[in-house]
User: Fold this.
Amino acid sequence: MAVTGLTIILQSKAVDRIHYALMLAAANAALDAPTTLFFATEAVEALTPDALGALKTSAGEAGAAYLARLEQAGVASPADLLEALTELEAELAVCDTALAAAGLAAGDLDRAERFSTTGLTDILARGMTHRLVYV
Assistant:
């Protein structure tokens, strides 16, 4: 079995880490490679409406300030990258256990229709044909 795709397991709710995982996924999907971005543990909190601005970076900077810097620099925002991933037909998946632990339902997510709900076993099974990256 050849490794043909990339699965990114995103567990952080730090805005800069989320942004980087989205950039990595978009770059891989733009190369026409199978791409899955799996939101796990705390990362599911970033998927609720208007959450990113209220979160912080890994260095403690306010999420809103980080997002403003991206905009000022002309860098694609997390929202832009999620839209691009949808257009590039990347799989956006969210962990069912992480949703339950956060007290969320799939319908609570911003643009919930673009996310599939699955579990870690399914994601790890892809390791046979996907490289796994943990962010």
